[in-house]
Please model this.
Amino acid sequence: MEAQAFDLHDEDVYRVEDIRDHNPDEDLFLVKWKGYDESENTWEPRENLTERLVNEWFSRNNKSTDDNWLVHDVEATEETVIPKDCEFPQLMRMINTSAHAYCEPHVVSVLSQGAIRAIYRCTVEEHECFCCNRQRMTTHMVIINGVSLRVGSVCIERVKKLNMAYRKMEQMEADAKNIKNLLSTLV
Model:
């Protein structure tokens, strides 16, 4: 798909002044539009916003007690402790922080331990989502320790991406150790 260029002075292009709120059930953001009154705010899907705006909103709101579902204290959570022999601690911190920003602690634990064995599409049914523990339309199943659990469409994208990040990190760690072992045999 070819990227579209927008004329920022065009009447049909609206500028975001700020994100005011987030609805995690539908992954919608309440947007305050530049030059418009608060009564003109609209709920917009994530894909209509830049990654920078969304990340700024989460960063700004990560200690909010009203939104304690959003970010959990990474340092205080046992399952996100970075091993001392970790070759890439800064990258691991980034993955853990992202996981805690978008997932409940039980999901982060499963992801960080590599317990998800498979993810697949299933028939769409209203069911409790494993990730957010909310009743919603579930579209996927995850296999964790031999148990199939249903996951909603909003949560599954996060789970897929974070699961891939943790698995890539494991592979990088193994590769780094193999390289060290290989180089140690040169002596």
Summary: The chain has two domains: 1-68, 78-184. Residues 153-184 form the longest helix (32 residues). Residues 95 and 165 are 7 Å apart (CA to CA).
